[in-house]
Write a structure and sequence with these properties.
Blueprint: H1 3-21, E1 27-31, H2 38-51, E2 59-63, H3 65-75, H4 80-88, H5 103-108, H6 116-125, H7 128-139, E3 143-150, E4 155-160, H8 161-167, H9 169-183, E5 193-199, E6 202-209, E7 238-242, H10 258-287, E8 291-295, H11 312-327, E9 333-334, H12 335-344
Parallel strand pairs: 1-2, 1-7, 2-3, 7-8
Antiparallel strand pairs: 3-4, 3-6, 5-6, 8-9
Helix pairs in contact: 2-3, 2-4, 2-11, 6-9, 7-8, 8-9
């Protein structure tokens, strides 16, 4: 996004968003990727509602599994039941349905696992009623943004989901679902999604995959993140950043096997990218006179290698962990305090019980 494009975008959206707050500070919720670890963010939202401190969000953004959470977060606590069912219902989703011939299918096809279970999960939860609710919220000036990665040009694509929902009808519902599926389609794990787009020479299909292939989370794309000028509607607001994973990997011995090395490398790269981007968002927040509150899964919680596994039992346990810590009001901390704790945190906690992101008695 160029500065000129941002000015045009701001003229269209920020004035409406400012009116929607009725003079109150703006709240921004940013949901990262993280595969099955997204159950943590879903649990945080449920526990946050239960604590009675969850604010209304004027902007919600999501990539990857964060994109699947984002519409429910955008619609407010009254949609917590649907969010909870999607991530830890009695018949929790099993998204890992191997193709015939497994790894050979990945080498000669587009993915190790079939895309139908993920598509079924999205189709089941993204209903015409949800689409109408998103459109109604968007008409008040609120923004729901989801990112995918366009493999054809290598760029991140930001989708205004409220604008899509506002179009109504089956074509809008189909595109809304396609974007969410694409954003959650981890390359090599799930097949990419072909999204039809119009061009001067006709309609063609773009190949889109996981938004976190371009960015661990979506905030202030392009030139916006380094604009020196003030964005007045954001003054006094708060950015809530949910990292569905570790900001620093726990120490462990990696097996000398291709799959283990690749998984560890991806997880390490995601953690490093997340730390760098937290610092970038913190710099932006300072310039815009905003607060930045961050939560992550501390290394005392053993994720193992399941950040891409999406195993129902582990997702339910992580949802319950996020819900408990949020209910106890021990998830949010100032950016600098969180980064300092991450740099010095132990991999294990006393008694082997995972510590909440903000330990009892910890200050920022």
């Amino acid at each position: 996004m160029t500065e000129y494009e941002f000015q045009r975008w701001a003229a269209t959206h920020l004035a409406a968003m400012e009116r929607s707050t009725d003079g109150a500070p703006v709240n921004v919720l940013v949901l990262s990727g993280g595969g099955g670890a997204g159950a943590f963010g879903a649990g945080v939202l449920a526990g946050w509602s239960r604590s009675g401190t969850r604010p209304r969000f004027q902007i919600v953004t999501g990539v990857s599994v964060g994109a699947l959470i984002a519409p429910f977060a955008f619609l407010g606590p009254q949609w917590n039941r649907q969010l909870s069912a999607a991530f830890q219902g009695e018949n929790g989703p099993s998204l890992l349905e191997r193709r015939v011939f497994g790894w050979l299918a990945a080498l000669f096809g587009s993915s190790v696992f079939r895309g139908e279970p993920l598509r079924s999960l999205v189709d089941r939860n993204v209903t015409p009623g949800l689409l109408r609710a998103v459109a109604a919220q968007a008409r008040t000036g609120l923004l729901l943004l989801v990112a995918t990665t366009d493999l054809d040009n290598g760029d991140i694509t930001v989708w205004n989901m409220g604008a899509i929902a506002a179009q109504g009808g089956q074509p809008a519902l189909r595109l809304f679902r396609q974007v969410l599926i694409a954003s959650a389609s981890i390359p090599g794990v799930f097949p990419p999604v072909l999204i039809p787009v119009k061009a001067s020479h006709g309609i063609f299909d773009e190949m889109h995959v996981d938004g976190s292939a371009s960015s661990a989370f979506l905030f202030a794309p392009g030139i916006v993140s380094i604009l020196p000028q003030q964005i007045k509607p954001l003054h006094g607001g708060t950015i809530y950043l949910v990292i569905n994973g570790h900001l620093r990997m726990r120490r462990k011995t990696t097996r000398d096997r291709t799959a283990a090395i690749l998984m560890r490398s991806v997880d390490t790269e995601l953690a490093s990218d997340s730390r760098a981007r937290v610092k970038l968002v913190y710099s932006f927040a300072l310039r815009q006179r905003m607060k930045l509150e961050v939560t992550e899964i501390p290394s005392s919680y053993r994720l193992g290698g399941f950040t891409t596994a999406l195993e129902p039992a582990k997702m339910k346990a992580l949802f319950a962990y996020g819900e408990r810590c949020a209910t106890e009001r021990r998830v949010w901390g100032g950016a600098l305090g969180v980064l300092n704790r991450v740099a010095s945190q132990r991999s294990d906690s006393p008694g082997g019980v995972p510590l909440c992101p903000i330990p009892a008695g910890a200050g920022d």
